[in-house]
Amino acid sequence: MEKIFISGHSGFIGQHLSKAFPGSTGVSLRDQTWRVQARKSSIMINLVGKAHDHIGKATRDDFFYANYELTKQLYDEFLQSAAKLFVHISSLAAVEEIESNIPLTEERECRPISWYGESKLAAERYILAQIPPKSKKVIIIRPPMIHGAGDKGNLRLLYKLISKGIPYPLSSFENKRSFISIDNFCYFIEEIVSNFDKMESGVYHIADNESVSTNDIIKLIQQVTKRKVINISLPKFFIKSVAKIGDIVPIPLNSKRLKKMTSNLLVSNQKIKLTLDIHSLPLTAEEGLIKTIKSFTSEVIG
User: Fold this and answer.
1) For the chain, which residues make up each domain, given as ranges?
2) Count of Cβ atoms closer than 10 Å to residue 268 Cβ
3) Tens digits of residue pLDDT in 213-241
4) To bridge 272 with a disulfide, which of 16, 184, 204, 231 should be the other Cys (CB 3.0-4.6 Å)?
């Protein structure tokens, strides 16, 4: 039986992944014994990182320490250990953060624009520059936004607005975006762990098979909560004008944020599906979103 080491196990993703691998060892890098645990493992899965800055005080150094320096320490330990597989969870932000009308493949030129995306790409490049021996495999995974029970990201924030009856003002924009449910995320990782002998070391994109729009998500929230909310379809030129004001004056909406909220961002998962002969995923995008939204309804959300 494989001994699986999961760093960053206490976070949203780590808690779900730990359940997917009963008997795995979850380790915090604050624990000085983590290197001992790593040396005992045969498979290392790295979830350590910093994605959010909820209070707006994180520096560039904060992001690079969490996403680059800690990953570097883990990967160096992997190279010295007897472990044969290192799975590094990177992010789509390493390649693109705003817009792609064509599904992003692994060959796409990387152009991150945030400290988060830049630090994730720096970690990828460090890993790929250290060629492992033939007895070891290194798989870098780039997921889009991951959602599920316990998620405290943008989907939960949208749920809070709609469930309180607050109208969504951007329904005149029709976008398509790729997401991945935590169930499908864990499925991909399980398939990698079980079949990594079929894989070449390198970068792989994962995502749900279907893309969805923000308006689709709002309809699903209304369906699950049984709450009808009148969406405000303000003219696009008016919204864009307000956003341009936000480029100068500190208001919640600016041009960059508007584009991120309303543009297409599509991901291709074809490479990993072809490599591992995957024909279907546990959940469709809609099924995954409904499951996540239902998990929010059981929470006490202020």
Assistant:
1) 4-151+178-209+266-276
2) 18
3) 988 998 999 999 888 777 777 888 888 89
4) 204
- Burial of 22 from C-beta contacts in 10 A (0-12 / 13-18 / 19+): exposed
Q: Tokens 């961002």 correspond to what residue?
A: 265
Tell me: domain 4-151+178-209+266-276, CATH 3.40.50.720, correct?
Answer: yes
Sign of CA dihedral 32, 35, 36, 40: positive
| The token pair that represents 127 in the structure block | 């890993």
Give just the sign of the alpha carbon dihedral 207, 181, 226, 163: negative
- The CA distances from residue 219 to 52, 62, 73, 291, in Å, are 27, 37, 44, 14
Backbone angles phi and psi of 260, in degrees to 5: -65, -35
β-strand partners of 181: 147
What pLDDT score does 170 carry?
80
pLDDT tens digits, 63-122: 999 999 999 999 999 999 999 999 999 999 999 998 999 999 999 999 999 999 999 999
Residue 195 φ/ψ, nearest 5 degrees = -130, 25
CB 5 within 8 A of CB 44: yes
Read off the pLDDT band of 302 (50, 70, 90): very low
Overall average pLDDT of the 49-72 stretch: 87
Verdict on whether the full-model pTM lies above 0.90: yes
